[in-house]
Amino acid sequence: MMSGIRLENITKQFEGSTAVNHLSLEIADGEFLVLVGPSGCGKSTLLRLLAGLEEVSDGRIMLDGNDISGLPPRERNFSMIFQNYALFPHMTVEQNITFGMRMRNEPKDQHKARVDRVAGLLQLEPLLKRKPGKLSGGQRQRVAMARAIVRDPKLFLMDEPLSNLDARLRTEVRDGIMQLHQQLKTSTVYVTHDQMEAMTMADRIAVLDKGHLQQIGAPEALYAHPANLFVAGFIGTPSMNLFLLPCAAGVLTVENQPVRLPQTDHAQALTEVYLGIRPEHLSDRPVDGESLQLQATLTYRELLGAEYLCHADTALGKIRYVRKNQLRENVGEIPQPGDRITLHFSLHDLHLFSGQNQQNLH
Ligand code: ATP
């Protein structure tokens, strides 16, 4: 029998727009899958389709080998956590947590054991008798999570649960979600527009743009091998430097240095190629191995703490690179605005995308 959840060629149309377009993916048992993409890419719609709050226009949603596309939300046994987690203000934390069980007339003697378990997991024991008005934002979010997990759902659906929290709380709640996942191993689909959040939390990331699945894979894989120009620009901070450059007969020339394109018919026929290089892979000092060089003029630098983000002009266009802030070394070594510099990067760290269909050439 098939375990886990499978989306088979899902399409969702609203009048005039296609929010999700022929999308297929699988969520393995116990997996933490993050859906990420810019505003309007279809993430929330996909989550609502999974929850049963929207109906698919085409395609199937399979759970453990059964088609659940037509099931109403309550029969799916999925639990959804939204960014606006409405708690009942007149009920205690405990009553909020048990609300769903009471609505379903589940036997009372089961309540206590289950409340104790989730309260323990989320460190809510001292708060059970309090009302939501007497809780901090992070505590309230934990209660909302307790309410979602107390049913022991097959799948958690989380729609930007951190987005209304301040920076410090966001880290706290994020760590809480990760710990909870470690302990419960409940399959989770988590939506965010924040690629850093996706990188730090996900087992796998699914990148969406305009309703299409662009790439799905482990964070490391997406960072090292972005499938196309969109993923290359979206995953990684600061974002990848990208230049559209002319090429001929399968050779790209970068400041008089030839770069051979892969020996495929597609690559050999191209007249334009996107060259991509991540800011952290550029150096103003020589690098090991086969490398390329770019002449540049430093325009300005931003101190980020342990490193500078340096901005420079090159013949290809504006470029950014990351430079360690070596406080103990001679400060004169760090280029100043206006300095002429040579930027080096290893051929190994170069990304090439088709100028025609924007797919990775490798
Ligand atoms: P955001 O990060 O801004 O929430 P999103 O990636 O979650 O965006 P969706 O909310 O899924 O995007 O919307 C995807 C597309 O579908 C958008 O173009 C949106 O306008 C459209 N859409 C979503 N819901 C509806 C609806 N109920 N009726 C009509 N169009 C809709």
From TrEMBL:
One of its GO terms (biological process) is carbohydrate transport. This is ABC transporter ATP-binding protein. Signal peptide: none annotated. GO terms for cellular component: ATP-binding cassette (ABC) transporter complex, substrate-binding subunit-containing. GO terms for molecular function: ABC-type transporter activity; ATP binding; ATP hydrolysis activity. SUPFAM superfamilies: MOP-like (SSF50331), P-loop containing nucleoside triphosphate hydrolases (SSF52540). Gene3D superfamilies: 2.40.50.100, Nucleic acid-binding proteins (2.40.50.140), P-loop containing nucleotide triphosphate hydrolases (3.40.50.300). Keywords: ATP-binding, Nucleotide-binding, Transport. CDD domains: ABC_MalK_N. It comes from the Bacteria. Residues 5-235 form the ABC transporter domain. InterPro entries: AAA+_ATPase, ABC_transporter-like_ATP-bd, ABC_transporter-like_CS, ABC_transpr_MalK-like, ABC_transpr_MalK/UgpC-like, Mo/tungstate-bd_C_term_dom, NA-bd_OB-fold, P-loop_NTPase. SMART domains: AAA. The keyword Hydrolase does not apply. It comes from Rahnella contaminans.
